[in-house]
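Readers of this paper often ask what the protein records in our data store actually look like. This encoding replaces a full spatial description with a residue-level series of whole-number codes. For reference, a complete record is included directly beneath this paragraph.
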Amino acid sequence: MNEKPVLTRKDYPYYFYSLILVIIFPPFADLLTGMISYFSGGANIPLGIMYRLGTLLVLFPLMLMHSNKLFQWSFLTVVILWICCNVTWYFLADVYNPAWEVNRIFRHIYIISVFGFLLYLWDKFRISFPQVMKYLVYMCFISSLSLIFSFVTGIGISVSSEEEWGFGMSSFFGAANDAGLMILITMPMAFYFLLREFSMKWVIICIAMMFGIITLSTRTAVFGTIFVFITYMVSIFIYGQKNVRIARFKKIPIFIIALMIMAGGAFYVFHMITSYTHVTKKYVETFTGKGFRGNNPDIAAQMTFDRNIMLQLFGQGNYSFHKNMMDTKYGDLGYTILEHGRNVEMDYWDMVGPYGFILGHIFVFFPVLAFFIMLVNFFLKPDILNLTILMGIAFFTFHSLNAGHAVASNLVSSVINVVYIYIFYYKQVRRDLRIDPSVTFLEDEADNRLQSPALT
């Protein structure tokens, strides 16, 4: 068997820059869209959508002729099922909006196409997975700086009518939850490099990402950040020198400083929650179950199971389902009436409701499957890289099931697709790192052998 070539900028510039353009640039296109809209007084130039549409047009033929037959047939199955769903909606749903349905499925097709493109590259080349992780961290570091800028200056897009001094702003991102989830999934990667390389650069990056995501004031951002910080500080003492490149005599001072940061952060979060009205309101509603999500799952379940068998299998479409959700609950409570209805804010019902039990469960099942596969991998080989990927897929899966904004999020797709590659190409990625699968730590020599030529 011939050894695959290493993907480098010098030898394969087309593939190298294609990888960067597909997974790194899209969030910046979204940021630029928000900046243009904000500074122009509301001009709607959807650069992010246009960028992804162009990417999809280039990648779509590759999906139909993909060398990985399992992926190719899976992709075609999704397309065929979606066509069957549309036929069902046209004849049986109370209202059918084909333009909106194309808009919504575009998100899924784009995400699947990016995953297929990454599969294609990993089949063709040896790629330094840690180097790809670094690119994602740099991307989210810049995104975090934009959030910090908006927090300090008050300049940016408000995602709450009760926004107070930077809280409740998503900088120039259109969706705060999506931006927060993207950074949260990448944050363990930043801490991974902090413990592996331990330099001031990674200290600054980790602090910026923690502070940036907390300014979003979402529950996932705050509690997820606390969990990541505690986990990796404890990891300093759990993992040996092969995993954590911190001298033994430095660990105690670092841990003391970490406790001080944790105490200061806890005080800051408590002050944030108790001092700002809309933040306090959100947290109280979360723990009392009286927020705008409230009994959404109950309403969605009743709507789903009250349908006839065909609509249960193939759904009733995004437009019809979310319109009915809004009419059933939100209109009576005086919430803003949206043209295309409102989501349940839980991916399970936001997929099964519109797409039915067949296609909806396919969309929801994939990240759940990835989580359990990674959980097994971690228990078999509990090294710090596996811990990092496990935390990323865990954040994505639990956010999907409890808060939505995950499975169909194009903003999160760059990060989560790289995580998927590690999970579903686990043996190959580990082999590309030149690590014996029986070894539970990363060898210095193995890292140097791969990282020096690959993606440089």
